[in-house]
Description:
Blueprint: H1 9-16, H2 30-38, H3 46-56, E1 61-71, E2 74-83, E3 92-97, H4 104-116, E4 126-130, H5 135-140, H6 162-171, E5 178-186, H7 189-203, E6 217-221, H8 227-237, E7 251-252, E8 255-256, E9 262-265, E10 281-287, H9 296-317
Parallel strand pairs: 3-4, 3-5, 5-10, 6-9
Antiparallel strand pairs: 1-2, 2-4, 6-10, 7-8
Keywords: Hydrolase, Metal-binding, Zinc
Pfam family, one: AstE_AspA_cat
Cofactor: Zn(2+)
Amino acid sequence: MPAFPPSTQSDAMTAQAFYPIGTPGQPWTAIEVAQWRSTQARQRSYEADVLSVIDTLRPSFEVVQYGRLDYAPDSYPLFALKSRDWRDDLPTMLVTGGVHGYETSGVHGALLFAQRHTADYAGRANVLIAPCISPWAYERIHRWNVDAIDPNRSFRDDSPARESAALMQLIAPLRAGVLMHIDLHETTDSDESEFRPALAARDGKPYEPGEIPDGFYLVGDSEDPQPEFQQAVVAAVALVTHIAPADANGEIIGATVVAPGVINYPVRSLGLCAGITDARYRTTTEVYPDSPRATPEQCNAAQAAAVCAAIDFALAKG
């Protein structure tokens, strides 16, 4: 999620020269987007990995289809899991995953929570889970959608990302009643090796190398940071996997560390998923799956632990 500081045009051309698509210093046109799209190959199956799990959860949830992405020749139904005992007098807890399709534990952590933990909140909270918001990107292990758009910068009116627009339409009737929203993400080594360079190339801007933090952290909302909430989630996850330390500048991905494992972003002005409701408590998780100190199972468990801690805090504090 880092911002890229300004640089000179010559610096931009030097830094971007290695990226195989586009002309350094010039934003992509539809030609470059099409060229980029042609390089994206399916590497895993949304149907096998996600839809099959959702099918097993039908006895426990109302499965709501909230849209379909028609990216010829592919078509992807979008599903959310909704508490069967939904009551208007209960607070609503929203869990979203897979906004960035390549961030695997965001998807599977949401599904793990659905499988193992939602029964704990029956009669206490409404739970709504959208586990894989970007299935085209999930299959191609990519950050962007088919149009080379980042869905997690596109949660705004007249969104250019169909994934973001579909989720916003689902949430719109519930927006004011959401007490807690947790959006599950990862920060990966490929952010630095592929996705940030691709972003710079796409936008015709300089690529500034950054540092990938080793460990879990949270991104709170700088407009309403709720530090006690953020720290409660970090404390729960610390029992599962390690928390990312600040770098030499006291930062994580270019943002000031305000508490162990916590930074803040202006989520709504950036068009981030965490800003789509009026929830009092909102946060974005960031798991580090490439750490030698974490297994895929730990990453999924860390996401599920974060969800449980977030709901528990919200229920306790109201």
